Structures
1.
Amino acid sequence: MPLTRPKPVKVVVLGGGTAGWMSAAALAKLLGDLVEVELVESEDIGIVGVGEATLPHIRGFVERLGIDEDAFIKATHATYKLGIDFRDFGRLGESYVHPFGSFGEEFAGVGFHHYWLEMQRQGRADPLGSYSLAVEAALAGKFRPPAEDTSLASTYGYAYQFDATLFGPFMREFGLGIGVKRTEGKVVEVCQDAASGDVTTLVLEDGRTVEGDLFVDCSGFRSLMLGGALGEEWEDWSRWLPCDRAAAMPCSHVTEEIEPFTQVIGMPGGWRWRIPLQHRIGNGYVFASAFMSEDEACSAIRGAAESMPLADPRVLRFRAGRRARSWNRNVVAIGLASGFLEPLESTSIYLTQMAITYLIELFPVNGPIDSRDRDEFNRLVDMEYDRVRDFLILHYHATVRDDSEFWNHVRTMEVPDTLKGKMELWRETGRVERYADGLFYDASWIAVYVGQGFLPRRHDPRTAIPDPAGIGRAMGSLQQAIRQEVAAMPGHREFLTGRAERLAEAP
Ligand SMILES: Cc1cc2nc3c(=O)[nH]c(=O)nc-3n(C[C@H](O)[C@H](O)[C@H](O)COP(=O)(O)OP(=O)(O)OC[C@H]3O[C@@H](n4cnc5c(N)ncnc54)[C@H](O)[C@@H]3O)c2cc1C
């Protein structure tokens, strides 16, 4: 007997920013005939229009959708990113790179960083970054994609830095091309079923209506359906992450070089970003309004600009936290509508991507939503948010900076118990809490702990077993191999411009 196909689930995505178009495109592409996707967006309201730095996972997203990487880079004016260069975080005047890559290799079952800690105790180690190919390549301004084998050249990953105002439209073109229906209009009312509370219909300003089975709320900070209509509770994390404003200001390029990394610089009231794209540099000052006024931040970002500003500073307001549940009834919030963690580690687009992935895995293809799927989605999303939150707080808390009220606050504040436990484990044993899923594994935590001068009291005693001279030689050989590898890499600009297919047309 022929199998009868289930009726397609009608998915309505509200919002045409990065989150909305990523969700619509991925659902349409990866669920195919199982769904019918309609996206509603309002040109009058517009998009937040920031979000330029990403994590390596974005590459998997682009690839799964079958998008050509060069075409993507060209359309979004993107550059390659090997990590983040942090300055003035642990201590004024100090810097380190958090790379998309590892530091050395495990030996005899003991992580490399334990050997580094032992050699450092003996005064025989160079900075940790010198044992990472990603760090050395980034600092040398070099780039090429990693090798797909197990050699040293495979020990890093990369992400993109792109123009946020071009990424959404690129995903829109892609989505429209695979059958997503776009409806332009402002939603003024969200109708719910009286009995179940499920959302049934969106009513537009001009009276048109859009009906659906499942609603994806990508309405940005407004969170029109989840936060608004369903009143889902907001968990506020501003006591740990007090930054709640950003003054963003694009500038022209300063030099011929394009750094293959994002720069993050600690400032008296927070920090500022510097993100090199093909055609300009993105700058912004993320700050806490409790410690600094918007005018002060705008004048600080103007003062920090190394080249010609391409626009006046634009102030964005936000708060750190997330909705208690990202999926309630038949509404799934993705992107800023679900929560926000400041862009210190470029995690927001990753959190969007991860929510889309979990939604596709748990999608109600065979009928009504199963509450167990919904609970699992919420558990996974919460876990991701909580881990990112703790990692961000670490950057502020593991500092000796005492030069402003802001840094005094974050240095001395109480941190969540989950982070307290991780920091204690590291301080006492040199070990990093392990987990199977989620973002930021050992190398990331080690980069920040060591980079910010938060060194452990002890490390793995097994580092004493091998002959110390042999370990010293092995570490020296690794550095030598890294130097050779970096010398053979093309410059970032050279690699980028090596193929015309990647180059954006001049604006
Ligand atoms: C200062 C700052 C810096 C950031 N930097 C980074 C970064 O480096 N890396 C990173 O990963 N992320 C970053 N982010 C986050 C990133 O900008 C967002 O995750 C991303 O842009 C997704 O936004 P969104 O689509 O959820 O919301 P939005 O872009 O705000 O889109 C909301 C959409 O909903 C629509 N809408 C709203 N209300 C209605 C209505 N009533 N009717 C119809 N349509 C409606 C709007 O028109 C719009 O299309 C940053 C965020 C900020 C604030």
2.
Amino acid sequence: MIRRNRCTGGIASIDVTARDNDWDGVRLHVVTGKGGTGKTTVAAALALALARDGRNVLLMEVEGRQGIAQLFDCPPLPYGERKVAVGLAGGSAEAGDVYALAVDPEEAFLEYLAMFYNLRHAGQALTKLGVVDFVTTLAPGLRDVLLTGKAAEAVRRRRGGKPVYDAVVMDAPPTGRIGRFLNVAAEVSGLAKVGPIRGHADTVQSVIRSPQTAVHFVTVLEEMPVQETLDGVAELRELATGGLQIGGIMINMMRPPMLSETDLAAAGTLDTGDLATGLKAAGIEDSRALAKDLAADLGEHARAMELQRTERQRLAAAGQPRYNLPLIPDGMDLAGLYRLAEALREQKAA
Ligand SMILES: Nc1ncnc2c1ncn2[C@@H]1O[C@H](COP(=O)(O)OP(=O)(O)O)[C@@H](O)[C@H]1O
Ligand SMILES: [Mg+2]
């Protein structure tokens, strides 16, 4: 943390032990996870959390679902970057802005042609001829490199000597496809020996395989998503030797335990008779039936908590930082997103 002298603005002291957050140098946050675990939601919350101190953040989605527009309650995003929210304020942090972009591979391809060959018109002719369809359906590798390419471009873009975006958050493909998705630039540069495609792929790689990028995993504490996370981390470990940085594990939709450790331990072995007596003493009619239901619920809760504990231990073995995100009980809305952003910031994920 750098402290500035309030009058002169000069650096008063630098505290090297206190980091502002765990991913200080990261400019591209790639968010993956099993579908349905909250990938889009957590990516959006992370963007809100990163948009502080006047920093601008770009939140991008690459799967054409318009999930971000829905989340921020705006009409479907056109192909263009648009401000969707103000970042999380709080403490001394002044909010920055969050922009969103739904990347469309065809548009990205036309942009790419325009950039490298000055071929905007040719590109439009190609669309008419269906060549773009060819590119996006028959060559999924090329499609992926255009999508990661767009992220790399947003990270590198500068205006007036300063980066346009301080951070880019990508709502990325799910765990099963993330390794290939991120490695595709390597494959493409292996295929093309020279020329602009090779140059483009090399640039994309130099961003993705650098300390500027981190790949985060979103999961919930259930067996399948946890297994996918562990498999995904293991797969990316192989790419990590090539410079790819594995990020944090965001444990989403966590339910707080309703009972203390001791009570939880006892919950499985409750005597229904004792419970009924207790309820009766508390003045509750029909205490027998209620006691039976209550004992069943308590047992269920205790088992669920035990399962969560096991899954949490399995995640710990992956050796990556973990962050806990609460279940928002009444469904996700903007207020819920800011709550998740706050939780991420408190735990120094952003
Ligand atoms: N922490 C949370 N609390 C409550 N609901 C959540 C939470 N995170 C995600 N959700 C909900 O779960 C569903 C799936 O989330 P989404 O972000 O679309 O997942 P994914 O992108 O992984 O498919 C959505 O309805 C979303 O509102
Ligand atoms: Mg999604």
3.
Amino acid sequence: MKIELHATLRECNTFGFDVSADHLAYLDQMVDIPLLLEKAHSESRPWRVIGGGSNLVLASDLPGYTGLMRLKGRSLHSQTSTHWIVEAMAGENWHDFVAWTIAQGMGGLENLALIPGTVGAAPIQNIGAYGLELAQVMDSLEAFDTQTNAFVRLNVSECNFAYRHSIFKEAPQRWIVTSVRFKLPKNWQPNLSYAELAKAFAEKEASSISSQEIFDKVCEIRSNKLPDPRVLGNSGSFFHNPVVSDKEYQTLKAKFPDLVAYPSQDRWKLAAGWLIDQCGFKGYKKGHVGVYEKQALVLVHHGGGTGQELLSLAQEIQEKVLHTFGVQLSIEPVILRS
Ligand SMILES: Cc1cc2nc3c(=O)[nH]c(=O)nc-3n(C[C@H](O)[C@H](O)[C@H](O)COP(=O)(O)OP(=O)(O)OC[C@H]3O[C@@H](n4cnc5c(N)ncnc54)[C@H](O)[C@@H]3O)c2cc1C
């Protein structure tokens, strides 16, 4: 296992914060995982695993071992009369994997195109976009269980998936995901449940739409809406959309008739971006960090700043939204600090 000392993580997080890892361990093979843990335990040092760094706020230099997930490989694992089962290793780039499945003629993941990061991190927050969540298409995953020191397979039903939530959020650091399998329907149908996609394909018969067309459209919409992290540091949505009861929603709606919200089972999902925008933060700049001018849900790093600066801006936004609407915003990315 290759280990770099005092390695900069600037290229390993999409905010581009320039912090360093005491020991950066490259996880290129399965055996590197137990090796990393053994080293950390025997030297009594902390450890964590990162993927593409697209859902992280690095708020200080990281002590101990930081494992960079780089396991590679993707294949058609098996098939049934109705489904393809495809598998990708945890270090594969998520978007490239989605593109690969489409190129193989296997639709089902196209709504999740252009989400940055790795395949292994996708189940951690149950990535979701454009009317699809990972939980709807995942079959199972393999992970190293740090409690039993063994590789285990977890089926989708064992992962406690919910909106931006999974069992991996409940017990951080218990499992290190090594590969994920997806169940893609042979009788593919377009998923146009998201209003913007439905509108874009309104003129076409569902049977004449291909997964490639949806993939291309999702990429086009996303590129117009979200800043490219290579140009402007960000982690996509910075806050979860708050989920409230019908009673809370009705009270807010009576007070703020323009409130933007979507039904979510028997509750309501409030558009966090709208709440932040109403508080006047869109395009706001504070030192080296700020709020994206086109989408208030996205916090950005203009360069030369720190994770601490970003967290202080996040706190300012949370306080103003709480004061104005009585709604508590929770932070989506994982905060790593010493
Ligand atoms: C421009 C932009 C747009 C985005 N859009 C979306 C979106 O539409 N929907 C959405 O859901 N997310 C979105 N995100 C967030 C992010 O892309 C996803 O959460 C992604 O899955 C994170 O992957 P990563 O490899 O970068 O994980 P990292 O940021 O490296 O890690 C995130 C967490 O996962 C853990 N982790 C990473 N790899 C493993 C592993 N193999 N095993 C166990 N734990 C692991 C880390 O310890 C950390 O806690 C967006 C981000 C950006 C920058």
